Amino acid sequence: MTKKYAICLSGLFCAFLFGVMALHLALPDRARSETENRTLQQFPAFTAAAVVDGTFMEDTEDYLADQFPGRDGWTGMKARVEQLLGKTEFRGVYLCGDTLINRGDEPGALAEKNLSYVSALAEKTGIPVYLGLIPTASEIWRDKLPSGAPVPDQSAFIENALAETGLPGVDYLSVLKEHAGEAVYYRTDHHWTSLGAYYGYTALCNSLEITPVRIDSFTPKTISEDFNGTLYSTSGVHWLIPDTMEYYVPEEGLTVTSWRSGKAEAAALYDRTYLEKKDKYSSFLGGNQPLCVIENPNAATDQKILLVRDSYSDAMAPFLAQTFAEVHLLDLRYYRLPVAQYAAENGIDDIVVSYSVQNFVTDNNLLFLSQ
Fold first, then answer.
1. pTM (predicted TM-score)
2. Can you tell me the distance from the alpha carbon of 284 to that of 271, in angstroms, rounded to the nearest whole number?
3. Mean pLDDT throughout 320-334?
4. Residue 210, CA distances (Å) to 96, 201, 204, 216 in order
5. At what angle do helices 109-124 and 154-165 cross, to 10 degrees?
6. CA distances from 295 to 177, 209, 307 (A)
7. Which of 149, 241, 289, 322 has the most Cβ atoms closer than 10 angstroms to its Cβ?
């Protein structure tokens, strides 16, 4: 009976493997996983050099893993099984009740270099330069993390960064801590919510000694109730209730210009086409781009502000546009011209280097600040 059982089990396993192989051959390869929000490995080119150095086999293994039939379902099932076994960390993401929080990277040599590049920018221009480091959820929601979870001390890094550069800072940390009991970050994404971005906007205004617009001046509108963000994609934890997204600021009266293709093109404060896609956060300004300028002739001041920034500023920009006549946003991943020169040529009043701590300590593009 035991032998028959073993033979039957082996037969079922072989049938499973054959079925998977047949599906792999029958189904077309996917270029991208919307669930994981990334490009998938395609079958590698067969060359003698790739075989000799081993990259062909490595790329083939990645290809088989990425193109595995039903990969998205298996990834979610794996995370679910691991959770039942007591695991709380999934690919660098902690499951904290109904919230996902990214562990983050410890600051290293690159972070020190990036601080020196910010200082170099301040030395090159006579325009005031502010350093704004945005703490992520692992700092503000530290109490939600599993006991003993090893996460970087972002408060200490921010304090040391300001002391080392000697620059005035934007105190995002204090205002976010003050409102830590509110939904200032998404539960499935690493970004702050529109509410968190509003509090960030108030911190920036306070640093520049400008009165921010009161929050009760805005009427938030829910624009999506099914946002599954980057941490949902990374972790494989696919069973949480999706996030709700809101817009606070109306678009009327604003002129938005984008330089996605190297020339000025009319754009929008919100690109609602992204609301039908996985990457809904990119609906703010239409996502990544080298340069974006928002003009508001009815702003509270006639000042022009330049943000050298990461994607957190996309959600904060609508609020900034209520206070500043011109909001200029540069992304050093795509913009390569001297920042000091751009600021001088465009009559900028203040420059803010505004990055989340996680992006600041890992971004290799801040060296362009020193041009």
1. 0.84
2. 6
3. 98
4. 37, 11, 9, 18
5. 40
6. 31, 21, 14
7. 322
